[in-house]
Amino acid sequence: MDPHLPTDAQALARAVKAEAREVGFDLCGITTSAPFPQEGGALVDWINRGYHGEMDYMARNATRSPRPAAVVPGARALVVVGLYYGGSSDAASAPDREPAAPRGRISRYAGGDDYHEVMGSRLKRLAQFLLNRGAQVARYYVDTGPVIDRAAARRAGLGWYGKNTLIITRSGHGSWVFLGEILTDLALPPDTPAEGNCGHCRLCLDACPTGAIVAPYVVDARRCISYLTIEHRGPIPRELRPAIGDLIFGCDICQDVCPHNTKTAARMHPELAPRPGVGSRPELFPLLNITDHEFQRRFRGSPVKRTKRSGLRRNVAVALGNAGDPAAVPELLRALADESDPVVRGHAAWALGRIGTAGARDGLQRRLPLEKDAAAREEITLALAASTGHAT
Q1: pLDDT digit string (tens) for 3-59?
Q2: Catalytic position from the list 2, 56, 90, 143
Q3: Domain match, 150 and 240 both
Q4: Residue 114 designated active-site
Q5: Beta-carbon-side half-sphere exposure of residue 117 (alpha carbons within 13 Å)
Q6: CA 297 from chain center: how many Å?
Q7: What is the DSSP-derived secondary structure letter of residue 307?
Q8: Closest CA to 352 of 369, 335, 372
Q9: What is the residue range of 239's domain?
């Protein structure tokens, strides 16, 4: 913080950070609304390579995202906050009973309440604090605006870029942190940008099962399991399905192996603790043919709703195929007969081909002449070949 700035501005910045802690944030830093030229150039190059996949909103906002003042006219400062979602809770640490059927994995951040709501309510209070102290503008975002969160977090001193592209905090919270920001017209003194690097470590690159971290600090979203299981609509590329394993919503692998995440001892915020019935390792059979009513009920207020019912069922089918448990065949055959969703039918067929029992083959053969969707029909044909040993 610049010691030459007026004392009242410095006092206000300290008050803002104190209020951020009071409303429940773990981290808070301040930076200016000056552009982010380096990150902006990298974003354009990333998009030109097609690494954003189907996230067209990133391309649409590529020219605005590096310029906070273009997002919120009149903005002079960014108040950047972080909320820790790692750690442990009683619910998270309780051991599972031995599962009677295959289970999937949900990313650590998604087992509890939707972080957009958890962060949003806190940011609203912090924004009101700014308005009460003379701000005319205090607009906040939690993945909801065209602001490069990581760039703002680094320049506000919260952390530095890891090779998996995530912010690694210098506060000891590792990368298990949600980011948000408030753009305000108040002239607040900026903090010193964070410095740090991963050195020669490449654990995250080597651990990524799909090779999505194509180079240090560069992720091809089209290969990222988090993208494939959440943002991507339609069929998951067949060559990537085996690498997804039992992950049905998101992926923490690159964070799990990061040395900076091994000693984060803070406890989880209670709103983010795993919910009963969602948790981190839900049973797969009840999810494969979940009704829309049950999906809405079970995942109300949960990040899992982002993938939609069809996407979750698709992901579950892939996980069951990778599990290879013959007990899944009846549920997969039910999904194969679901006339409402050809994507789910196609992934159920793939899973049945992976399991390859006589019952799985019989079901695929019965379905083939009935299937009218070309993509699903192709999946059935390939699954039959795989199940009889003529293809992989």
Answers
A1: 545 568 899 999 999 999 999 999 999 999 999 999 999 999 999 999 999 999 999
A2: 143
A3: no
A4: no
A5: 10
A6: 21
A7: G
A8: 335
A9: 203-387
